[in-house]
Design a protein that fits this description.
By secondary structure, this protein is mainly beta. It is about 0% helix and about 40% strand. It is elongated and about 100 Å long. The relative contact order is 0.11.
C-alpha cells in the first residue's frame, strides 16, 4: 500500500498493489492516472488476455485512438471534428470503407442526426438530408378537407389521400386542389386523381364530358383533362355530395 494504512479501495487516497496482480488507485478531486508517451506517436496502453494482445489505446498527432487489431476508432478533434474508422495495429492509420457499425442480429437502436447521410458515395448527389412521414388535408374548391398521408425523401414528396365531398359545387369557380404538405417546385406537379359518383353534366373550359371512373393527372393545382391546349379546366360543379376523390402522386419541393 502507498498512502493507505488499510485495504480500503473507495474513499482513501493512495494506491494498493496486491501480490495477485490487482492494483487500485484513488485520488480526490483530480485525475487518477496520467500516461505520457514521449518522442513519437503510438501505443500508450495495451490490454492482453493470456499473453495475447486484445486491444490498445494510443495517440496519433496528439489525438487518441482505441480499438482491437484493425478495428478501432480515432477521435480527430483537430482536423475534421470527426470520429474515424482506424487500424490500431502497427502504423495506426485510417481504414476507409472497411468497418461496419453493428451487424446482422447485433444492431444498434436509433440514430439521431442533425445533418445528412452519404449513401454509396461522397458527392453531393449521394447525400440524403431529409426523410419525413406525416399527414395532410387535401381540399378541393367548395369542399371540406379530406385525409391523406405523405412520405418525403430528400426533395421528392409522395402523397396519398381521399376526399368525400359534402357539398354540391356551384360551378362558378375553377376546381382546384390545395393543402399539399409542401410547396411544389416548378413543373414537377404529378398528382393522379380518380373519381367516383361525380356530376357527369359538369361544365368548364374546353373539357370533355366527364364520366364515373374517370382518372386525371394534375400538372398544377387545377383539375384539368389535359396538360395542354386551350387552358382546359373543370369547374367546381364536377363534385357533388357523395363524390369520392382518390389522390396519389408525387412532386418535387425545395422545402
Amino acid at each position: 500500500m502507498v498512502g493507505k494504512t488499510t485495504l480500503e479501495y473507495e474513499n482513501t487516497d493512495g494506491h494498493i498493489f496486491r501480490n495477485d496482480g490487482f492494483q487500485n488507485s484513488t485520488r480526490s478531486s483530480g485525475n487518477v492516472n496520467d500516461f505520457n508517451r514521449l518522442t513519437n506517436d503510438g501505443e500508450i496502453t495495451r490490454f492482453s488476455s493470456d499473453g495475447t494482445t486484445a486491444g490498445r489505446i494510443g495517440v496519433t498527432s496528439n489525438r487518441i485512438f482505441i480499438g482491437s487489431g484493425n478495428t478501432g476508432i480515432f477521435f480527430d478533434n483537430l482536423t475534421d471534428n470527426a470520429i474515424k474508422p482506424w487500424n490500431t495495429d502497427g502504423t495506426a492509420t485510417a481504414r476507409d470503407a472497411a468497418i461496419d457499425i453493428g451487424h446482422e442480429g447485433e444492431r444498434f437502436k436509433d440514430l439521431y442526426l442533425s445533418g445528412g447521410v452519404y449513401l454509396g458515395g461522397v458527392g453531393s448527389a449521394n447525400k440524403l438530408d431529409d426523410y419525413e412521414e406525416g399527414t395532410w388535408n387535401p381540399t378541393f374548391t367548395e369542399q371540406s378537407a379530406g385525409t391523406g398521408t405523405y412520405t418525403k425523401i430528400g426533395r421528392t414528396v409522395q402523397v396519398w389521400g381521399e376526399v368525400i365531398c359534402d357539398a354540391n359545387g356551384a360551378g362558378v369557380n375553377a376546381l382546384a386542389l390545395s393543402g399539399l404538405p409542401f410547396s411544389v417546385l416548378g413543373d414537377t406537379y404529378r398528382i393522379h386523381l380518380g373519381f367516383d359518383s361525380m356530376n357527369t353534366s359538369a361544365n368548364g373550359n374546353n373539357i370533355p364530358t366527364p364520366f364515373n371512373g374517370m382518372m386525371l393527372m394534375q400538372h398544377d393545382q387545377y383539375v384539368r383533362p389535359s396538360s395542354t391546349g386551350g387552358n382546359p379546366y373543370f369547374k367546381s360543379d364536377l363534385f357533388v355530395i357523395g363524390t369520392r376523390v382518390y389522390i396519389s402522386g408525387q412532386f418535387e419541393t425545395t422545402a
